[in-house]
Amino acid sequence: MSKFCLMANLFEPLTLKSGATLKNRFMLAPLTNLQSGADGVLSDDEYKWLTKRAEGGFGLTMTCAASILPSGLGFPGQLGAHDDKHIPGLTRLAAGLKAHGAHAVVQLQHSGMRAMANVIGHAPLCPSDNAEFKARAMTLDEVYEARDAFIAAAKRSEQAGFDGVELHGAHGYLICQFLSAGINKRTDQYGGSAENRARFLNELVDGVRAVTKPGFSLGVRLSPERFDMDIVEIRDLAQKLLREEKIDYLDMSLWDVFKEPLDERFKGQTLLQVFASLERKNVRLGAAGKIMTGEQCARCLDEGLDYVVIGRGAILHHDYPKRVAADPNFTPVPTPVTADYLRQEALGEVFVNYMRTWKGFVAEDAAA
After folding, report:
1. Taking the model in full, what pTM does it have?
2. How many angstroms from the chain centroid is the CA of residue 315?
3. 19-75: per-residue pLDDT in tens?
4. Mean pLDDT over residues 252-272, rounded?
5. Fewer CB atoms inside 10 A, N or C side of the chain?
6. Residue 186's domain is classified under what CATH number?
7. Category of 25 on φ-ψ map: left (φ > 0), alpha (ψ -120 to 50) or beta
């Protein structure tokens, strides 16, 4: 297939199983930005950051990880979806994203053992006791509370006008902690076998589907490496999710889509190939991980993905999809960039300061 045809595929509409159609194959990665209020209420800076990406052409624009319980707060300025007081801000945001033709999605998250103890006022919660994070095992009632809170947050997001939600099952947060045999040492129905450890996620999928209307999209994010994850188990879980067709899309956070897996059993393959080769019907598959250039986006679709998830490229260029459309060879501006450059790309001051913690991303002289 010609390079022109591959690039054109990026701008073909993508229909989801629930019925929605994305205008193109670009998804904004759910990026931590620390910009909302301490109470989780949407700030003007977070609104500006996200709506600017929708304006820039992303077919699906997703929030950062939004909290589903106060006990799961993982970082300052985290957007909230755990209380009705968050609905007005979420309503404003949904309308702002959809005004630019984006499919508007809230990512739902609980930090589990990675929650901020000094903010939540007690030891972080985890499927099992965890000495490293000074976290304690959740009681069965607390597991049920977290499950029900995810489902309630999805309903709240729908009420606010969002088109869908994504369940954050990656990056060592609560859902991921349940999936991990290294972290989850429970002996009840939520621990032990891979099937039991996936029970929490499966109940969330079923629960969200039960309380939201037809047409409301549902995605799941998984990561196959780091955080005590077993790539074989995650591959098998991904295959199950794809076959069962209860979700609309699977979002694989691979850190680097073109790298070889750490697991020797997959030597000679890329992480992208491990997951793009899975059998699927109507569930869409995408991935994030150092997808920076227009050519890399096209390669990802050529190797089997349905869409690409853009993080750093979207921070550097609010109109990343439009730039790729104009130039198939588009490459983002090299880093480090100045703080003023990021401000022009609609990052608020808190977000700019957060980006200074990313090695080599912000020019040192800009911090003065």
Report:
1. 0.97
2. 15
3. 999 999 999 999 999 999 999 999 999 999 999 999 999 999 999 999 999 999 999
4. 96
5. C
6. 3.20.20.70
7. alpha
Tokens found for residue 91: 């309503």
285-295 pLDDT, tens digit each: 999 999 999 99
In a domain, 32, yes or no: yes
Contacts of 233 (CB under 8 A, 6+ apart): 179, 181, 194
Is 340 inside a domain boundary? no
Q: Structurally, how many domains does the chain consist of?
A: 1
State which residues form the domain around 37.
3-332
What is the pLDDT, as a whole number, of residue 184? Answer: 98
Q: Per-residue pLDDT tens for 96-105?
A: 999 999 999 9
